[in-house]
Amino acid sequence: xxxxxxxxxxxxxxxxxxxxxxxxxxxxxxxxxxxxxxxxxxxxxxxxxxxxxxxxxxxxxxxxxxxxxxxxxxxxxxxxxxxxxxxxxxxxxxxxxxxxxxxxxxxxxxxxxxxxxxxxxxxxxxxxxxxxxxxxxxxxxxxxxxxxxxxxxxxxxxxxxxxxxxxxxxxxxxxxxxxxxxxxxxxxxxxxxxxxxxxxxxxxxxxxxxxxxxxxxxxxxxxxxxxxxxxxxxxxxxxxxxxxxxxxxxxxxxxxxxxxxxxxxxxxxxxxxxxxxxxxxxxxxxxxxx
Amino acid sequence: xxxxxxxxxxxxxxxxxxxxxxxxxxxxxxxxxxxxxxxxxxxxxxxxxxxxxxxxxxxxxxxxxxxxxxxxxxxxxxxxxxxxxxxxxxxxxxxxxxxxxxxxxxxxxxxxxxxxxxxxxxxxxxxxxxxxxxxxxxxxxxxxxxxxxxxxxxxxxxxxxxxxxxxxxxxxxxxxxxxxxxxxxxxxxxxxxxxxxxxxxxxxxxxxxxxxxxxxxxxxxxxxxxxxxxxxxxxxxxxxxxxxxxxxxxxxxxxxxxxxxxxxxxxxxxxxxxxxxxxxxxxxxxxxxxxxxxxxxxxxxxxxxxxxxxxxxxxxxxxxxxxxxxxxxxxxxxxxxxxxxxxxxxxxxxxxxxxxxxxxx
Lengths: 290, 361
Prior knowledge:
The complex is a heterodimer of chains A (290) and B (361). Chain A has 290 residues and is an all-alpha fold. Chain A has one domain (61-285): MetI-like fold, CATH 1.10.3720. Chain A is built from 14 helices and no strands. Chain A has helices at residues 4-18, 20-40, 57-61, 65-98, 104-112, 119-130, 135-142, 156-180, 185-192, 197-208, 210-226, 229-234, 242-252, 256-285. Chain A is globular and about 75 Å long. Chain B is of the alpha+beta class. Chain B has eight helices and 20 strands. Chain B has helices at residues 42-50, 92-102, 107-120, 136-148, 166-183, 194-200, 219-224, 229-234, and strands spanning 4-13, 16-26, 31-35, 57-62, 65-66, 77-80, 154-158, 186-191, 203-207, 213-217, 239-246, 251-254, 258-261, 276-281, 287-289, 298-309, 313-319, 325-331, 346-351, 357-359. In chain B, the strands form four sheets. Chain B has a six-stranded mixed β-sheet, with helices on both faces. In chain B, helix 2 (92-102) runs parallel beside helix 4. The two termini of chain B are 40 Å apart. At the A-B interface, helix 9 and helix 10 of A face strand 6 and helix 2 of B.
């Protein structure tokens, strides 16, 4: 037991070597491009020179409420999508861990099955569900709940529901694995000491699965913030989001300086949002245990 | 502090019968041990009392109140778990205070009680430590403190010392006895270790591998007067020989070995002439010597087959004429014994007829 400190240090050293390929990959394909974007955002002209070529004019141009409205709309989408995913994913993960005894792996297989299809294909599949004569409308009409088909495509509703379904597994998986890792006798100990099921849920289960909840929130929040396929296709491009605006700058208007500057600004806002989210999660679900 | 009554308890797991018609009364305020080999259902019995499992038949009473289907958190019963099951996200204080938080007691009262309980298990110096900073023995004490702070009618202990080393285990056993003496709470202690059970228990029940209770009694009754060959050989070690009762049930004839005097106890009126029966004689109740001795009712000769030195005693395995092996314990009372018994020595073995226990086949 006394050698554990030494041992873990040795293990850590070995882990560094093992993670070299991943680190290299990340540097070449993530940090280097990010650095280029940062550089481009302060250039006047696209030249390999910094003399008389630096400017903050692109950032100044972004001091426009319209852009901040877009960023806050994306933040709102990311946050509410994370909350919705959590509200649905936690009961599902809980059910999988505690109620399902047989066919557990089949259930998990069914959960990840949509990932076998391309994301675009998944999104297009929703057209058939949400369109005027689509599955959802015919079902509701058939049941007599509505008398006229609902207009759902190209509305915020469509964006939210499809985002929810596409990102749900990213929330379920980490919560599932953190719940699965909790020692089952802790629940027995809790009720043995007088806790009802609800008290055990709030005092033991939720705090002990907080690391999975946190991972799930980040896995949903970050890509939701930059999401542009769903708003473009199912929102009809009526409302701009961060992702759609960036692609608009780079692809449609080819204003790469403005695009780079906006990417940096929204990236910075995302970092701030993540910091706030971390504090929020800590307040709600308790601190991560060491 | 009320008695527990188990009536006709039946429990199956996936068509496998674990407990079949178990009847047991544990008296109020006693230190009771459930001893049995693994798979004997002793832990299941404990979990039924705690409420972690529900019976498939029969009923459980705590005092006059039937608790068979009362939910876990409403039973005045607390458990010390084998793996301690301490909450890893709480420190020592919060772990112990958990039951009181749930009762919504005032902060001051909680603090008072927690400190008092932690003092009684000698943990007052570690109140604000996190669980993974504690040693196994200290975690064990936290588990104990957490379970007794609710002042339960019954404290259930599921192999609580199994993970501790020998020295610490003996120390904890003494502390448990003292604690029980002080609290007067009924303790139910599950173990597969006969040493632990014999040490702590006021009374104990021996369970066999089929989930049946073979005998209930004080440790001394169990050890000296086992009711079955299972109990005789599971608690302590013994020599069991099969024979036939002869001569007005005053002797037993063991084929190939000889005839020996026995005493048939009054309660065993079912024993009669010509009945095939088992005779159990504990190894330490046999005297061994190279020279002949007088004053014993029974005598047997054999050859020393092997010698195992245990420190406080020496175990001899003696081969009889028919090839049977008899175990004999001798206390090592002297540095330089007068007589040294060696391998292949021919030895005489003696025992008194009162020390033999007769068991049904």
